[in-house]
Amino acid sequence: MSTTDHLLEALEPVVAENLDRHLGLAQEWHPHDYVPWSEGRDFASMGGEDWSPEQSRLSETAKAAMITNLLTEDNLPSYHREIATRFGRDGAWGTWVGRWTAEENRHGIAMRDYLVVTRGVDPVELERARMDYMTSGYDSGDKTALEAVTYVSFQELATRVSHRNTGKVTHDPVADRMLARISKDENLHMVFYRNIVSAALEIAPDETMRAIADEVVGFEMPGATMAGFRRNSMIIAKAGIYDLRLHHDDVIMPILRHWNAFERTDLGAVGEQARDELATFLEGLDSQASRFVERRAEQRARTAARSETGETPDIAS
Ligand SMILES: [Fe+2]
Ligand SMILES: [Fe+2]
């Protein structure tokens, strides 16, 4: 049996406990309750009118964020494969994999229905982008189960922040409510994975600290391989929907604090080394985030000075 298999087996009771906790806390909700169906109408193939840009009430920023978030959700079959091959299909791990997959699918359903019904984005472009991105799929590389569970702890919280702030820039109470609902799911997912990593730290502190350092240093959003990701993530960062400051302050640090990453006294040489690397990386990330926020504030001030109203509408934070 490999170390990973041992660890997965040792974590099984913690997974079972957290699965029960999750099922107790998760509230049932239905995508159809979050979509303004009365705004819907036929497209040309049914005798209606096809999409054109002026039909959308979303700004370019809101569109970029919604498309990025939806396409990210769409690649669920790849994520399912990634976690099912790492965590297995048996016992509590297997039940979690199925339940998590079912919950995630609801996010894509709600967002797509909203965008198509309200004509928020071009449905043809959206479908082509989905085909492209899903055809290439997502591959997390050769992560172990421990690295995967560590990565998703951060990733779930990152999607929570990103959905929540996307809701703010839509300036649409319907979209805001839907994205707030989805964010709650992402938060519960984060709590589940975070608790598994807490237990892993108790069982195998050095190995787990190594995984934490590697996943924080190498962190990349799952959508990084989709077409237009660099452009869209710049728009998303400029609007404060997701940027380095949020990544450091609201995603990485709260989880590391929860794990007592910097106060632990149970690390050996391997864990200490990993923690040092983590600390060095975080210092760099923090100053990079500060520089980004400074530059952005200058840019915003210049834009506000140029515009007559002084308004900067596309800002989440
Ligand atoms: Fe999701
Ligand atoms: Fe999630």
From TrEMBL:
Fe cation 1 binds at residues 73, 104, 107, 186. Its cofactor is Fe(2+); Fe cation. GO terms for molecular function: metal ion binding; stearoyl-[ACP] desaturase activity. The keyword Iron applies. GO terms for biological process: fatty acid biosynthetic process. Belongs to the fatty acid desaturase type 2 family. This is Acyl-[acyl-carrier-protein] desaturase. It comes from Nocardioides szechwanensis. The lineage of its organism: Bacteria, Bacillati, Actinomycetota, Actinomycetes, Propionibacteriales.
